[in-house]
Amino acid sequence: MDDIQLPSWRHVFKLDPDKEISDEALDKVCLSGTDAIIVGGSSGITFDNTVDLMARIRRYELPVVQEVSDLDAVVPGFDAYLIPMVLNTTNPDWLVGQHQRAIEQYGYMMPWDLLIPEGYLILNPECTAAKVSEAKANLTKKEAVAYAQVADKLMRLPLVYVEYSGAFGDMDAVKAIRTAMSQAFVIYGGGVTTVEQAQEAAEAADIVVVGNIIYEDMAAALATVNAVKAVAIEDNI
Ligand code: 1GP
């Protein structure tokens, strides 16, 4: 396994197994200078489409991690597994229920060392993840910060993922969240399509995730890598 050096990551591409990507496009993504690839999505994720995408990314040297959203689609062979715990869900299934059932069933064979729990804070009510996980995503900045603090200070999760999937979020809220953290790293994802947005997100969060634009405008997606990496962020922790 490659060592997962989360604290050194600044830019990550997220690839969706349910979406087509050509070998040529995948080559560009994997050789872009990004720090890692996350494989995951909110719908249409299966074992078969995940194993296929993982095998293709595996030809490259960069770390590849799976963000688990469906137990049936967990594929052995990733460098690590991000385990979302949806902080602002209204259904405890998405916070601990599915996790409990997974451990009850498969606990004896869990690669515990490879699991990285993330406090997932979904702030775009329109995104699929918000709908699927029944999240109360219309939060004030103060409410959002408090949820992130639950993850950081009470649950002591190593990551807080601020998810605006499909829409560029409120960077003031992301900054406020990061400032309030004692030990968790803050990942931001959602609607990063331009160099300016990539820079703004890089000023607000420890790690910036870029997803959809890969499938819409490859040149714009690739430009976000250097844009993020050019921004130095002060140590918060
Ligand atoms: C989605 O946070 C990621 O889970 C990235 O969002 O697809 O909007 O870039 P976009």
TrEMBL record:
Keyword tags: Lipid biosynthesis, Lipid metabolism, Magnesium, Metal-binding, Phospholipid biosynthesis, Phospholipid metabolism, Transferase
Cofactor(s), names only, from the UniProt record: Mg(2+)
Keyword Protease annotated: no
Residue positions binding sn-glycerol 1-phosphate: K14, Y161, V162, E163, Y164, S165, G166, G191, G211, N212
The protein's Enzyme Commission number: 2.5.1.n9
Enzyme class label: transferase
Gene3D superfamilies: FMN-linked oxidoreductases
GO molecular function: heptaprenylglyceryl phosphate synthase activity; magnesium ion binding
Residues noted as binding Mg(2+) in the record, renumbered to the chain: D16, S42
Family to which the UniProt record says this protein belongs: Belongs to the GGGP/HepGP synthase family. Group I subfamily.
Function noted in UniProt: Prenyltransferase that catalyzes in vivo the transfer of the heptaprenyl moiety of heptaprenyl pyrophosphate (HepPP; 35 carbon atoms) to the C3 hydroxyl of sn-glycerol-1-phosphate (G1P), producing heptaprenylglyceryl phosphate (HepGP). This reaction is an ether-bond-formation step in the biosynthesis of archaea-type G1P-based membrane lipids found in Bacillales.
Subunit structure as annotated in this protein's UniProt entry: Homodimer.
Protein name as it appears in the record: Heptaprenylglyceryl phosphate synthase
Gene (UniProt): pcrB
